[in-house]
Design brief:
The chain contains 6 helices and 9 strands. The protein has 2 domains: 99 residues, no CATH class; 83 residues, SH3 type barrels, CATH 2.30.30.100. It is elongated. The protein has 197 residues and is α+β, with helices and mostly antiparallel strands. The strands form 2 sheets. Strands 8-7-6-5-9 form a 5-stranded antiparallel sheet.
Length: 197
């Protein structure tokens, strides 16, 4: 059997062994899974770029392993870090000493890490939600969300579809309640007219 095949089998066995362990909540501020916002705010795993998420698992030996997922060349990869129980206690204490991010900090971090967030956020946008989109070139679009794929968002406005490149988007807001959307739409139209855009 080739070395590469043995290595792959070892990795699969290791993953099964790890995931069979109990999931540890290091601190209530981060819960059972650490996301990119928590990584940035609490300065966790600074050596990992293109971070997706992390979980801590207790092994049968009572040591603890952090399983970290990250992007590498458009593929999801995994790193494991072994911790003693005392190291996890110290990490939890470090997290607890810092307040959770407020709304402004959350918005700042989401803007900063937008490429990692776009797919997750777009999957949560309900069909027919009213959207306001501002592009990197300052151009604005407003309409009803129809669908998205990996590259584009499709909006419906005045019975026409508009495809907008996700990479070109600077900001996007959406409202899922029809009555709020109508009010916001007219406010936006008035604001746009008065600004002369």
């Amino acid at each position: 059997m080739k070395f590469s095949t043995l290595f792959i089998l070892f990795q699969i066995t290791l993953c099964i062994f790890i995931y069979a362990g109990e999931i540890i909540v290091v601190h209530e501020n981060v819960g059972s899974e650490i996301d990119i916002i928590e990584k940035a705010h609490y300065h966790l795993f600074p050596e990992v770029n293109n971070f997706i998420n992390a979980q801590f698992h207790r092994l049968p030996s009572d040591s603890i392993v952090a399983v970290v997922q990250y992007w590498d060349n458009q593929r999801i990869k995994i790193r494991e870090y072994l911790y003693s129980q005392y190291e996890v206690y110290l990490l939890g204490r470090k997290i607890g000493e810092k307040q959770p991010p407020d709304k402004d900090k959350l918005e700042y971090l989401q803007r900063k890490y937008k490429p990692l967030f776009s797919e997750q956020h777009l999957s949560e946008v309900p069909v027919n939600s009213y959207c306001i989109i501002k592009l990197n070139n300052k151009q604005k679009y407003s309409g009803y969300f129809y669908k998205s794929d990996r590259n584009n968002i499709r909006l419906l406005l005045d019975n026409q579809f508009y495809d907008i490149s996700i990479k070109s988007i600077d900001k996007m807001k959406y409202w899922s309640r029809q009555d709020e959307a109508d009010i916001l739409y007219w406010m936006a139209m008035i604001g746009t007219t008065s600004a002369g855009l």
